[in-house]
Amino acid sequence: MVVWGAILKIILMVSLSAILGVIIPAMIITLTFSSLRIIAGGFHFGDYTKCITVSTIQFIGSALIIKYTY
Predict the structure, then answer these.
(1) CA-CA distance, 11 to 18, in Å (whole number)?
(2) pTM for this entry
(3) Sign of dihedral through CA atoms 57, 63, 66, 67?
(4) E strand or H helix at 60
(5) Is 60 within 8 Å of 17 (Cβ atoms)?
(6) Any idea where the domains of the chain sit in the sequence?
(7) Spatial distance between the Cα atoms of 60 and 20, rounded to a whole number of angstroms
(8) Which of 5, 7, 19, 38 is most buried, judged by most C-beta within 10 A?
(9) DSSP symbols for 5-58
(10) What is the pLDDT of residue 1?
C-alpha cells in the first residue's frame, strides 16, 4: 500500500508541476525536503489523502513562489 501511495504522489507531483511549468523547482524542493525529513522526522497525518493534499500544495506552491519571484 505504501508503494502505491508513493507512486501516486510522484505521478501527481510531476504532472501538476509540468502543467504549471515548475517541474525543476518542484523537484529541487521535494528532494531538499525529503533529505531533511529523513533527519528531522516529521508530522504524520492520520489519512493519506490529507498527506498528499498538504504536501502537494506546499511543494507546488513553493515552486510557484520561486517561479514568480526569482
Answers:
(1) 10
(2) 0.81
(3) negative
(4) helix 48-69
(5) yes
(6) 2-69
(7) 9
(8) 5
(9) HHHHHHHHHHHHHHHHT-HHHHHHHHHHHHHHHHHH-----SSHHHHHHHHHHH
(10) 66
Q: Are 63 and 22 in contact (CB under 8 A)?
A: yes
pLDDT in tens, 5-63: 889 989 999 999 999 999 999 999 999 988 888 788 777 788 888 888 998 999 999 99
R_g over Cα of the chain: 12
Q: pLDDT at position 58, please? A: 92
CA–CA dist 27, 29 (Å, integer): 5
Q: Which of 24, 32, 28, 30 has the alpha carbon at shortest distance from 57?
A: 30
